[in-house]
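Q: My labmate handed me this sequence with no annotations at all. I'd like to see what the chain might look like in three dimensions before we decide whether it's worth expressing. Could you predict it?
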Amino acid sequence: MKKNSISLILLLVLGAIALYLFLKKDNDVSSKMLNDFAIEDTASITKLFLADNDGNYSVLKKMDDGTWMVNDKYKARQQNVYLILRGLHNFEVKSTVPKEGVKAIISQIATKPIKLEVFQGSDKPSKIYYFGFATQDHYGNYALLEIPGEGKSKEPYIIKEKGFYGFIRPRMITIEDEWRSPVIFDYPTLNVKEISVEYPAYPDQSFKIEWSGNNNIKLKDGKGNAFRNFDTLAVKDYLLYYKAIYAETYNNHLNTAQKDSVANTIAKAHITIVDKSDQKTSVLVFDKGFVDPFLRDPEYNNLDPERFYILNEANELAIAQKLQWDPLLVPLNRFNPE
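A: Here is what I predict for the chain of 338 residues:
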């Protein structure tokens, strides 16, 4: 009982410290009710910094061509950036927080916030947002605004995006792998020269397609033997799938040992593409087992019936949906070779 009391007191003390540091960090609390959450000119935004209390952070920077990069390493999901920018332009106050709830909401924001810093061409942020959780009706989000030079608002607000019914916090992604562009194969004009698909467990169904435009197509087996007759229309239809192929996410929720275990199993397929500028892209496709034993189902050989693992040339493991990837994994005999 005594230990429980000590733990409770310690928890309350730590919560009070977190609240104090939150309110005092960077600037003192403003005497103003800062509630100008919207940013009119979102085109002037050059950088976004997102962070949480778990040590995750993502820095999004706008490139000269208008695309966005995450942490100076990967192309970001442009649609997700757009959702943040659209929100910033359309944020409005839905209501104030009732007086009796202000202390609890500030404490919530202090202990589990998502912080968003917005930069508009300067080294210093123009606005800083602290997002708490959604309201009970899920039509608003608790948030607190800080404007450098003016301080933090003394009270939080319930904000929403004008014209949007839902809450805002989920789009404030702090995990790098969730920001990464999911594009694996991106050939919208089909500027491909070769596609080879190897099946380690079924080498007799491996194939290679060589294409130089129109009906100038060659089909070869896994040993490089060319076929005189095959279904050229089926091959051309197959090529169309490679206009845009994506992963679902790079956030695979596996530790290093689990990732190594996947990489060391026999791949379901090995896909390699060479484009017309001789740039090569290659991935390995693996069946995805369930890490959680409660999700395993003997009916599917304890494999996920909806997803694969994809391993790229940088040895990065992503998750991909079978719905999109299954059409790529056809056998050689699909093209009726003779």
